[in-house]
Amino acid sequence: MDDYRVVNRASWDERVPAHAASAGYKLAEFERDPKFLSDVVRFDLPLLGDISGLRGVHLQCHIGTDTVSLARLGARMSGLDFSGPAVAQAQSFSDQLGAGVDFHQADVYDAVEVLGAAQYDLVYTGIGALCWIPSIERWAETVAGLLKPGGRLFIREGHPMLWALDGDRVAGEVTLDYPYFETEEPLVWDEGGTYVETEAEFSNNLTHEWNHGLGEIVTALLNAGLDLTGLAEHDSAPWTALPGHMTEDPETGEWRLTEKPFRLPATYTLQAVRR
Fold first, then answer.
1. What is the pLDDT at residue 13?
2. Closest CA relative to residue 71, chosen from 52, 92, 47, 43
3. What's the CA gap between 218 and 21, in Å, rounded?
4. A Pfam family for this UniProt protein (predicted)?
5. Which terminus has fewer CB within 10 Å in the chain: N or C?
């Protein structure tokens, strides 16, 4: 198997300019309104609570809009991502806004070595991050290594039940086609385009991804020395996860099943603290 990091990084590197230019990331809104927050972080606020004064790190931060949003809530934030262009874009974005975020390029598994052990009150991870890593146990150990005793992990992520569904069936029934549990070998995709509206065409379209069951995630965190403090499942996601079967809430930007949305946990929010 090709090194998944090399394959995935090529895909993400190429998409950075399209993402930064897209309406979906709302960079212009951040510039116009000093209090503007990303839709993802705005959704997180009721469970996130007051983070002012905390030392935080956002893992797999991409172009930094959620990281800057956390900084606007009063946390002293760092961001880490494996894509050089993404980190450069994020740092330029933060500097332009005066957000005071420092961004670092590194693989998520190298975060402790790059950022320092037991330095953080908060580790934050957002939508669409865990599917890019092969081992949830190694990720949990990384989170534990970053957190101070009593420090908190906050993650909102696509639900593994959602990732197991075939979301490409615009017509007809949605089917349960993909692994729910972590597998040794990745799902290999070769697809053009991206998740924001853009006219850009891409040449690096191969990606390697993994799912991780909710029980696997919780167990990995417990084994790494964290105690679970909250687990909420949501019937919505901030993107069109199942095209043709979901309807957008124009106020929140969240998407739910058009019919009987209570059938599907689309995302979840997990919180845990370091012992």
1. 98
2. 52
3. 36
4. Methyltransf_12
5. N
- Domain CATH code at residue 22: 3.40.50.150
User: For residue 120, what are the β-bridge partners?
Assistant: 147
Reply yes or no on whether the pLDDT at 169 is more than 60: no
Number of structural domains (the chain) is 1
State which residues form the domain around 221: 4-274
Tokens found for residue 89: 């874009």
Reading the block at residue 105, the tokens are: 């390029």
Tens-digit pLDDT profile for residues 87-99? 999 999 999 999 9
The number of C-alpha atoms within 13 Å of 63 and in the hemisphere containing its C-beta is 19
CB-CB contact of 182 with 211 (8 Å)? yes
pLDDT, one tens digit per residue, over 197-241 is 899 999 999 999 999 999 999 999 999 999 999 999 999 999 999
**Residues near 81 by beta carbon (within 8 Å), at least 6 away in sequence:** 60, 61, 62, 87, 90, 103, 104, 105
CA distance 191 to 167: 13
Q: Is the dihedral of CA 82, 44, 130, 228 positive or negative?
A: positive
Query: What pLDDT was estimated at residue 2?
Result: 63
Provide Rg for the chain, Cα atoms: 18
